[in-house]
Design a protein that fits this description.
Elements (H helix, E strand, L loop, with lengths): L1 E7 L4 H11 L5 E8 L5 H8 L4 E3 L8 H13 L5 E4 L8 H6 L4 E5 L11 H8 L3 E8 L9 E8 L6 H24 L3 E4 L2 E4 L18
Parallel strand pairs: 1-2, 1-4, 2-3, 4-5
Antiparallel strand pairs: 5-6, 6-7, 8-9
Helix pairs in contact: 1-6
The site of 5-O-phosphono-beta-D-ribofuranosylamine (GRF) has 16 residues, from helix 1, strand 5 and helix 6.
Length: about 220
């Protein structure tokens, strides 16, 4: 069973969708720890309730990004993970840290990358007037929100949407997409060809996600 460490900074709803998928038996992996840079991240309590080991590496206790990142790497490596999952982890990571986990660290970003990297993605989407928005799971590389794309899910932008309404519509898809993409990783179905992600067959998506879907027969 592949070992996953999840990094969070906040409420942890994506983390919970992953823990739910593991508990339901649809994601064959073990979440060995949930780590946060914030002691007050609400997701930590939720992980603890489910019996997952949790840890806090407080970024404020470190004078530099390098020092924080090496403490974080030390904490992660205790658990010997096959995969590091960023789930609302709100820290810019140093190149050294990113390269240490090259090919085995993924992130979910609430936009259809390469559109709208960075913060306030729903506000950016509304300001741009796009009719389609969504979320992206990607490998993490040193350039923020730019790594090879593993999976995306799209939602419509509806007249009258505000940031909260749009964020909520995207979040529903995030909770479906992330466990699915992680399943592809733990099933060793992802490979990188010329810097792009290739998914080994079958290219099925769970009901509710964007096509392609498998024939129902
Ligand atoms: C999600 O929208 C995720 O895409 C982004 O940060 C948010 C985290 O939410 N990276 P949660 O903590 O998983 O609820």
């Amino acid at each position: 069973m592949k070992r996953i460490v999840i990094l969070i900074s906040g409420r942890g709803s994506n983390m919970l969708s992953i823990l739910d998928a593991v508990a339901a038996g649809v994601l064959p992996a073990t979440v060995v720890a949930v780590l946060s840079n914030r002691l007050d991240a609400p997701g930590l309590a939720a992980a603890r309730v489910r019996g997952i080991p949790v840890g806090v590496i407080d970024h404020r206790a470190h004078a530099s990004r390098e020092s924080f990142d090496s403490a974080l790497a030390e904490a992660i490596d205790v658990y010997s993970p096959d995969l590091v999952v960023l789930a609302g982890f709100m820290r810019i990571l140093t190149d050294d840290f990113v390269l240490r986990y090259a090919g085995r660290m993924i992130n979910i970003h609430p936009s259809l990358l390469p559109l709208f990297p960075g913060l306030h993605t729903h506000r950016q989407a509304l300001a741009a007037g796009v009719r389609v928005h969504g979320c992206t799971v990607h490998f993490v590389t040193p350039t923020l929100d730019h790594g090879p794309i593993i999976a995306q899910a799209a939602v419509p932008v509806v007249d009258g949407d505000d940031e909260a309404a749009l964020a909520a519509r995207v979040l529903v898809q995030e909770h479906l997409l992330y466990p699915e993409a992680i399943r592809w990783f733990v099933e060793d179905r992802l490979s990188l060809v010329n810097g792009r992600v290739r998914l080994a067959a079958p290219q099925c998506l769970s009901p509710g996600l964007v096509s392609p879907t498998c024939p129902s027969s």
